[in-house]
Structures are given as C-alpha cells and as structure tokens.
Amino acid sequence: MSNFFYEAATKILNSSITEWKENGGKIVGCTCSYVPGELLHAAGILPVRIRGIETTGTDIGDAYFGPFICSFPKCVLQLVGKGKYGFLDGTIITPGCDSMRRLDECWRKAGEDYEGIVPPYFYYFDVPHKTLPHGMKWFKEEIVRLVNSLEKHFGVKIEDDAVKDSIALYNKGRHLLKELEELRKDQDVRVTGTEAFAVTIAGTVLPREVFTTRLEQFIGEIKNREPVGRGKKRIMLIGSISDDIGLVELIEKNRDAIVVAENLCFGVRYEGHMISESGEPVDALAEGYLGGSICPRMFGKYKERLALLKQKIDEAAVDGVIMQNIRFCDLHGSEHGLFERDLEKAGIPCLKLEREYGPLTETGRIQMRIQAFLERISSK
Amino acid sequence: MRQELLEYNFDWMMGCLMDGGAKAAKSTPKEQQVLMRYMPYFNKTIDMILGEGEAGELFLKMMCRFFDNLLTAHEKGKKIAATTFCFSPAILYAVGAVPVTFEIMSALANMTWKRGAFDYLDFGCEVGLTETSCSSQRGALGAYFAGMTEELDFLVYDTPGVCDTNANSFVFTATYLNKPSYQLNYPQRLNDERTNRYHLEDYKYLIRFLEEQTGNPLDYDRLAEVLKEVEKQDTIIADIEDMQMLVPCPMPPIYNMFIYAGRFICSGLPEYTLALEKMREKVRENAEKGVSGLKSGVEKRRLYLCYIDHYTVDLNFWRWLDDHGISHLGSILSKSFAEGTGYAKELEGSTYSMDTSTPEAMLNSIAQLNARLPMVRSIRGPYDQPNMWLDETLAIAKAYKADCIIYNGTPGCRNTWGMVRPFARDLEKHGYPTHILYGDAFDDRVESWESTRTRLEEFFTVRGLL
C-alpha cells in the first residue's frame, strides 16, 4: 500500500496537515459530506473531514453525550477534548443525523470545561432533507450564507471564478476515484479493498491538489500490478459511517475474500457524480451536493439506494454484501433490514453487522461472523 | 408473532376496550364489576380514567369516536393516514381522511395489555427495524407489519432532522408496506420569516400529496370549519394552562394526557371540544375553591416534565405522582403554543395564531400550528439556541413555579440523548433540580416500573423535595 495514502488514512494529524499549518494555512473541519469543499478550497482554506480514529476511550464523549448514542461522535468529542483537533481554525457542523448534529452543543459545552477546544470559527450548516424546489432554494441560501460567513470570519473573498476552478479540480479527483472504482470491478482486480478505501479516506483530509496528483500516479501504478483477487469471494461493504480501514483489512485478512465495492458514508458513494462546471457555481454545488444525494438521511429514497446497490453489485460481480452499521444508527440499521429482504430475494447473500465505532474491540466477534458468512457464500 | 395474538386485530381490540370503558361509566357498580372481568389488564387504567368523572367519560367517548372512524373508514370509502404525534391530524380530517397516530396506539397497547406492547415491539425488530429504534412507534408498528390492523393507505410525518428515529420508522413502514408517504421537513430555527416561508411552501406540497391520495381537492370551507374548532379547543387549553399555573395546581395530573392524546388524534373534532370543556369546568371549580387537582387535595411539589411522560402498564407513573402529592405541570406534549399562552410571553415568535380569512391564511395558520407541535417546535435546532428547548423549559418552569424538572423518554430518542446531559446541567445552573430517567416510556423491559419508581423516590428524597 502507498505509505502516503496510508498515513493520511490512519492519522488525524498527517504530514500534509502539518505542512499546511507550518505554511500558515487555515484548516476547517466538517462533520459531513454535504459541505461543498470547493467553497473552502476557493477561499484558500483546507477542508478536512472530522474523524474519530485514534481514540482509546470515550470518557470525555460519554460525559456530554447520553448513553444511547452512536459512538462515532463520542470518539470525535473525545479527540476534541484531548486537543487532537487543536489544528482546526474552524468547524462546520451539519445535521447529517441526530447523533452527529448534537456534536454542535456537546462540543461547545465541552469547551466550557476544556479550555481552547472550540475553534474560533464554529458554524452550523443547515442542510434540508428534501430536494423539492423549496428545499433546493433553502440549500442554495445556506451555501450563500456559508460563503458570507467564511468571508467575514477569515477575511477572504470567495470569487465565483475561483469556485469554478475548485469545482474543476474536485471533479478531476471524482473522475479519478471513478476510474479507481472501475478498476476494482475488473475480474482481475489489482488493488485490494483496504488500499482503495485508504485512498478514498485520504481524499477527505488531504489538500486537493496533492490528492489528485498522487491518485493519478497511484492509478497508473496499479494498472501494471499483478491481479490480487483471483479465486477470492468478491465482497461489497456498505452502511453507516466508517473511516477505519481496519474493518476492510479485517475482511481481507481472510485469504478467500476481497472487497471490490463499497457504499459507505466516507467511501465512494458519489464518485461518479460530477458537479456542473457551467452556470452559477452556487446552483451547481447545490444540485451536486443535495440534489444528487440519496444517503439515508434523505428519507424516502430507498428505491434509488437499492437500485444503486444493485447496479454496483452487478458491475463488480459481487458475491456477497456485508452491511455494517454503528450501534444506534437506525437510519442505516433499519434500512439494512430492507436491503437484506430485497437483496436476498434477488439471490445476493447479505450479512448484517452491528458494531461499535472505535478501535476494533470486537474484532474476534466480527471476524467470526465474517468467516461464517464467507463459508456460506463458498457453499453456494 | 404469536398465533394467539393473530386471532384478533390489534386496533379492533383496542377499540372494543375503549367502547367497554366508555359504557362502564354509565353502568351500575355490579355491571361494572362484570364488565371489568372481560378487560382484566385494563382494569386499573380504566378505573383511573373513570375516576375523573365526566371528564374521563368524555375522554373515553372521544377515543371511541376515533376508533369508530378508524375501523369503519374503508367501509365509508375513506382513506387511512398513518401519522405521528408531531403532526396535527386536523388537516387529515379536513381532507376527509382518517388519521391513526402510531404513538397513541403504542401507548394504549402499553396501558391495556398484560405484556404491554412487548410482542408488537419485538415483531417490529423481526421484520427489520433495529432494536434501538424508537419504541413509541414500534409498539404499534409490529401489529401493522403483521397485518393485524386496518390497512394503511398512506403515511405523513414531519420529523426528518427533528427526530430521525421517528422519521425512519415512517419511511421503513412506507417501504415495507409499499405505501406512499410525504414528509414535512423543518429548518433549525423557528421564528424568522425565511423559516416561516419554508414551512408554508412545504405544507403546500403536503396538501397536493393529500389531494392525490384522497382524491379530494381541499375543501376550504371544510378546512375553515375544522380550524375554527381547533381554535376553540386551543382557547380552552389555554384557559386550563393558565389555571395550571395556580398554587396549588387545580388540575388532576392525568388531564395532561387527556389533553395531548386528544390533540394528537381528534384535533378539530367536536368530541374533543366536549372533553376539554368538561376538563376546564372541573379545573375551574378546583381553582375557585383553591384546592389542588390531586386526589389528596394536598400539593407537596410541582413537577415539570421537560420531555414526555411514562405510559407502561396500569398508568403507574401517573398514580405515583398523585399518591405522592406531586402536581404534573405538563410536558413538551401538552403545551399548545397557541398565541397568548402565558408561558410563551418571553419566547418571541414561538406561537401561532389561527386566521381563517382566506385560503392562503388558513394554510399558513395550519402550517405554523404544525411547526409548533411537540419536538418539531423545540428540538429542531441546537437546544440552547434562542427560544429552543432550554429557553422553553426555563420559561415554562418559571411560569408554572416548578420545583423540579424530569426528563423521561425512550432510548430511541437519539436527538435528545445527544444533548440531554449538558441540557440538564444548564437547568441545574438555573436552580432547577433536574433528573434524567433512563427507562423507556413504552417498554418496561428496558427498566421495570419498580426500578423507575425507586429512582424517582431517590431523586425526590436526595434532593430534599419530599
């Protein structure tokens, strides 16, 4: 695996972030994929997706969040409380789901007890749950408000032309991720799921120019590799938030399994979804980030999500689907019940896996279930 | 689902229980005794409701009307719309549809069955809902998934981004049962022009959906009629709420539940108005005498429930409050937020008013009313944002002279569990002893009533409240 991508995927404070800060750059953390990174990029700010890796406990998270809450935001708050996100100049909270949006209050309230953990710029980006005309209008207004707020706080001007350039750059990265996904569909797949996932995660925290250049090189390199998946069961991994390559690694530790596709919150759900480079940038961003979104927070889009899964399953010749969700994630958890019903009916074996976020403390249990699932697929 | 449960329809059985209960009100003691033999697990609940005299009887009659509407809807060519307690059913009555509110059905199942709603809760998980999903819908949904109810025609809900677990239950049900659905959606703020416009626009799309589903164009004369009835009901509720501020509180604790149960299933129906009028009469009578609405007549403490109440077997929670001389000052469910309500004076822009002068004004009124129902009003955005949950709780606690505050909910309520600890700490900072209950309002297996009772006793004792 590329050390560069591996380091970015497994460390909160990776070398690119350190370098960015040393050069006096500003960094803003985002809690969800609905924040258009292009806006921050156009302002010369590095957007990074806020993650929960490297936690060893949740004592701080537990002191603010209640007990019946997803462990991902708890791990994030833990890192915040420990000062691991001290490099952030700002944070944008999004109502991605109920657990994540309460990071807003919990982070601010923890800031009353732990000095200096609330970044000077702290913003709530109100993303609607629908794409009807008034929903799109609301979202466009939110984008404009965000632009105004960033300009005011950071003393920058976010020009339309700069946003258009950023959209073009981000699209290049999206195109490359799409290319990587196409390579994974190949029967003679030359990249492991762990590597591919590390690349995708790295894309959420690296400066976009660096990421795009490195990804282009990486794709060129893997095309000349030997196949790595012959004779293995082709697995698709889907579900709720997952930014830990350890889970993919765990699946691929089994000699007879390779992860060839995914549909994860941190993954490549929208890799092929380009943002329009013509017209008004705000319209294009709104259409791309909200209009095209079918993640489970966009209630009522089950059929679209199922169709997307089936398409990916067909294209990548998937043998089985592992559906993972963090405990208390009902959005994904309940939907997995429906996916299981509909995919099994279509002859696609499924495994539902509920787990805790954080260091894979449940490795043994999870591995046992994965192995049993692989046995089931093999016996078909 | 166990075979014996499949023998009788879930909603039909509950309708029969309500009917029996209502009839018991006018029967002789001997007749009552015989009747009660046929409703062994509803005895204590019915006893408590009928113990409220005519108000209890009218409440049961209102419930009977609700069940009669529901159980005969299809015979009468009407559509059944599943909805939630955060959505005003008035609009459904206006378009000629019959509402069924899942949370009310779950609460009833808990109050009336030997095993509460356990079987239905578990069956919900069997078909795919997570065991961490909200019990307030799941308690009824199991029966719907098992086909033990009148068939739903469509679903309407309004909780995405306010309570994702609630919204998720609806979207799961719509998908599982292959029924059409529409969701209203609320921005994080409440009281600004931009948000109000969004509410109205969204509501107009809802109307289109309802017209499509029922095949009936919205009759604005009918809507005006329903809204005027709602206005009348809001005025009575406001009167009761005002008297509830008196010391001692002249309102019996269980009236809170009567008020909001009616609002969630019979808003705009005259049966609800009748029950409210009788309640107001009783509360006024107590107020004039200067006596408490508690059975003992002696008020020891005043409690505000900042979230929801507790509904498991036999209405134990309500009985406990009454037995201990604790006045129930309401909860997030019972406050109407109609214009002019005393507690909302300090919460600018938090209320709605009824204007039936034009179709547009009517739509705006009901859209704004809907936006102020429980949860969608106060937990849509950060709790410490102006006029949200913290401000609202403090304003109510102050207006009603609460001695303490209790949070009670369900483990499924991700949205409040996400911030209830700092919220409770903030209330304490303002001088209100605040207790967080960790049980489930709809599922005794999460924490038995005995344990909940012990925790309540501990709180009141340790904090020197009793």
Task: Output the keywords.
heterodimer; A: 380 residues; Rossmann fold; 51% helix; 12% strand; B: 466 residues; alpha/beta; 4-stranded parallel beta sheet; 52% helix
Architecture overview:
The complex is a heterodimer of chains A (380) and B (466). Chain A has 380 residues and is α/β, with parallel strands linked by helices. Chain A has a domain at 10-158: Rossmann fold. In chain A, 51% of the residues lie in helices and 12% in strands. Chain A has helices at residues 3-10, 15-22, 37-42, 59-64, 71-81, 98-101, 103-113, 133-154, 160-185, 193-202, 208-223, 245-252, 281-291, 302-315, 330-345, 363-378; strands at 26-30, 45-49, 90-93, 121-124, 233-239, 257-264, 320-326, 350-355. A 4-stranded parallel β-sheet of chain A has the order 2-1-3-4. Chain A has a 4-stranded parallel β-sheet with strand order 6-5-7-8, sandwiched between helices. In chain A, strand 5 (233-239), helix 12 (245-252) and strand 6 form a beta-alpha-beta unit. The longest helix of chain A is centred in the middle third of the chain and has 26 residues, at 160-185. Chain A is globular and about 60 Å long. Chain A starts with a helix and ends with a helix. The mean pLDDT of chain A is 95. Chain B is built from 20 helices and 8 strands. In chain B, helix 7 crosses helix 9. Chain B is globular, with a radius of gyration of 21 Å. With 466 residues, chain B is α/β, with parallel strands linked by helices. Chain B has a domain at 3-220: Rossmann fold (3-Layer(aba) Sandwich). The model of chain B has no long low-confidence stretch (mean pLDDT 95). At the A-B interface, helix 6, helix 7, helix 8 and helix 15 of A face helix 10, helix 11, helix 18 and helix 19 of B.
Instruction: Show unreliable segments of chain A.
Output: none
Output the helix-strand order of chain B.
Answer: HHHHHEHEHHHEHEHHHHEHEHHEHHEH
Number of strands of chain A: 8
Structural class of chain B: alpha/beta
Q: Most extensive chain contact?
A: A-B, 48 and 52 residues
- The pLDDT mean of chain B sits at 95
Oligomer class: heterodimer
Structural class of chain A: alpha/beta
What is the chain-wise order of helices and strands of chain A?
Answer: HHEHEHHEHHEHHHHEHEHHEHEH
